[in-house]
Amino acid sequence: MQIIRTTMLFGLLLAATFAHAQTVKEELETGNSLMQGGDFTNAIAVLNKAYNQDAGNIEVVKSLAFCYYLNKDYSKALQVIEPMVSSDNGDDACYQVAGNIYVALGENKEAEKLYKKAIKKFPDSGPLYADYGIFLGSLAEGADAIKVWEQGIEADPSYPGNYYYASKYYYPIDPVWSLFYGEIFVDMESLTRRTPEIKALVLDSYKKVYSKDDYLSPLTDKKGRPANAFENALRATLKAQASALTGGIDAESLTAMRSRFVLDWFSKYATQFPCRLFDYQRQLLQQGMFTAYNQWIFGSAGDEKTYNAWVSAHNTEFNNFYGFARGRVFKIPKGQYYQTKAKD
User: Fold this and answer.
1) In whole angstroms, what is the distance from residue 167 CA to residue 334 CA?
2) CA separation for the pair 79, 36 (Å, rounded)
């Protein structure tokens, strides 16, 4: 009889634990849904219920703190998230939320200390580098931001955010890197509000690169010796295709130029400098989808009427590429990092 009672009690405890877990999970899902809809007041009320039941639940803590942050109640947000990061129990997203809160409160010293601690704990977290770079870019000594975004690209090469910020940073001063990083970004993040912005930036970077000889001249160090062999190879290969653009730079001429670029690159440099972006371009070229790919990037960033007319006239070709692109995830393997100037 005692065994039966014990078994029943154990069953009741399990059922109660499961019900509790389900309640917290449901409240978390409801709160997140309300937060995504912009109803922060009701989201906070629901998430607080979950928090009162399970204050150690990392997902609940993140959501509640972030909701307070979005509602501009920064003190409450910090009160919720601070114990999680100070105890070292938080994940990298906890540190992201906390960093944003410190910045919103104007506590820059605390924010910088937190970002440094977070990156030391999560050295492969691309989002942390992106946020830390944004923070540094907001300060007077904002030049350090690119160093952090570059570190993020090297540490977490398949996270798109650092390419986004690096591409924008390089555009005024070094458009070769802007077009290189920008194209990687749009291949990784092809359907967000940031994608059209960077497509346009990549198109403008190509125009800028071919507008001034300095952008495609070989790089040298202070002693006149060749510097950054990858970039020199990239510059030389781009320069060799300039004749394809004498009639102007648009989606059609860039398709011709870049087709020649791919063939040239793989005959000279691919073994020395493995590059997933150029591998992808060659794959599309071999499978007859490179024209549609270039239209998707440069046509859509140029004249909308011309682009829509091209898609309409080549509907099957475009849909074949688009279906292929949507069915894969573009990732960069570690070890294909070639930028050195930002570290100098």
Assistant:
1) 19
2) 22
